Amino acid sequence: MPVNMISKLLEKAVLPALDVAPPVKIGGPRRTSVLRNPNMEKLQKGYLFPEISIKREEHLKKYPDAKVISLGIGDTTEPIPSIVTSAMAEYALGLSTPEGYQGYGPEQGHKNLRKAIADKVYPDMGIKETEVFISDGAQCDIARLQTLFGPNVTIAVQDPTFPGYVDNGVIMGQTGKVDDGGKYAGIEYMRCAPENAFFPDLSRVRRTDVIFFCSPNNPTGHAASRDQLRQLVDFARRNGSIIVFDSAYSSYVSSSSSSPRSIYEIPGAREVAIEVSSFSKFAGFTGVRLGWAVVPDELLYSDGFPVARDFDRVVCTCFNGASSIAQAGGLACLSTEEGRAAVRRVVGVYKENARVLVDTFSSLGKEVHGGGDAPYVWVRFPGRRSWDVFAEILEKTHVITVPGSGFGPGGEGFIRVSAFNSRDRVLEACERLKSFLA
Ligand code: PLP
């Protein structure tokens, strides 16, 4: 079957699933007697990106001919290098042969890929292949880690933050209700703003059991310095906390940057940190789905039990292993210099887009952050509400951004601009932004 026909079939199959579930009519369909998980009710209405999609649809109804450019959702747009897709295709075709067929793989992932990650992503950091658990993406690992922690732990997040840490904590029952300011009772919000170099004053942060920390950061684009991560690790060690370090954007840290790519570059991190990471933004696998979590042997609960043993159990019970086709692709990204160079080139395209965006906003006199070691640019609009800025930019330039307040109260007054689009579209968006903001 031709490739474009396969894509069309998948599109058909996938699109309805992305639609928001139809509202239940009162007096309509018969109800069961099953109680809803009460924590689901606590979740704030509307997830950020569906909300933005609705605004986009409304905009297109108003301006049917508008050429909308999305610098919103952090989804990759460049094709996956053929050295990677050929490896997946070859593996997939092999499944049709008696010699190439394989069923379930190891739940923790294929040995070669675990080893490639340990060797190539964590060189000289002492990470063993058995400490690497292959997954279907960082988002899924964040949810599975919450299963591991259960409802009784306390959590801290950066503010603003990637929403997945908070929402999974809410679903697990680790929080109370949300207040009018958008904060959940029970969560410690660590404000990260330009004024504190995007790093909290830890002497004023309440101790929690788990600390979610993302660097390079979504949404601010800030890559934490070595000194900041040292402080974080020391803080966790002093308090007996576990850091969940999200390094989904580590491949955007320039080789000349002094920011660490992994928490395990910091001495002492093995005893206090789990790292989740992903092939999504590193190799364009947002749709293919592949990621990993590192759980070091030294990480222990208060009773001395190894966290990795429980995580292994969760992976076996709740997951059953990542797609072997995706794993073949992951291996192709890492195992040869050719594969590594090919994915580096794609990351380079987005990094250059980010540079163009930073230059554009800077030339307009805006306060701009991020974009150097991350695919996100964080722009301040003092005294303005994020959603108003989002709406005005959309109305006047047909460019979609993301309101910073969608990432928590600390994002109010900012917008996030994503570098994930083709160079031509980014350049076109910059021209429009220049004429609007000049
Ligand atoms: N972590 C962060 C900080 C992200 O921004 C994203 C996606 O945008 C994810 C995790 C999810 O990654 P994955 O596609 O591997 O589930």
UniProtKB/TrEMBL annotation:
Superkingdom as given in the UniProt entry: Eukaryota
Keyword terms of this UniProt record: Aminotransferase, Pyridoxal phosphate, Transferase
Pfam families: Aminotran_1_2 (PF00155)
Residue stretches making up the Aminotransferase class I/classII large domain: 67-433
Cofactor names: pyridoxal 5'-phosphate
GO biological process, one term: systemic acquired resistance, salicylic acid mediated signaling pathway
One GO MF term: transaminase activity
CDD domains linked: AAT_like (cd00609)
Classification via PANTHER family: AMINOTRANSFERASE
Similarity comment: Belongs to the class-I pyridoxal-phosphate-dependent aminotransferase family. LL-diaminopimelate aminotransferase subfamily.
NCBIfam families: DAPAT_plant
Name the record gives this protein: Aminotransferase class I/classII large domain-containing protein
Species the sequence originates in: Oryza punctata (Red rice)
